[in-house]
Write a structure and sequence with these properties.
Helix content is 71%, strand content 0%. The protein is mostly helical. The N and C termini lie far apart (100 Å).
């Protein structure tokens, strides 16, 4: 009895549909594009703030 190997259970097959894969990929691309847009906007705001600060400082010195 001790020599018996327990029977293996069959592993259930998981099938992922093509639509799900496409949805995940498209979602990733959209989120990446949004993140890039936010980063570009943040850099633009910082540049505009630096330019305005410089202009105001120059005007204050005059």
């Amino acid at each position: 009895m001790a020599d018996q190997v327990p029977a293996r259970r069959p592993v259930p097959r998981v099938s992922v549909s093509t639509g799900a894969v496409v949805a995940v990929l498209v979602g990733g691309v959209v989120l990446t594009a949004l993140l890039a847009a936010v980063a570009v906007t943040a850099v633009s705001v910082v540049v505009a703030a630096v330019v305005l600060r410089s202009l105001l400082r120059d005007q204050h010195r005059r």
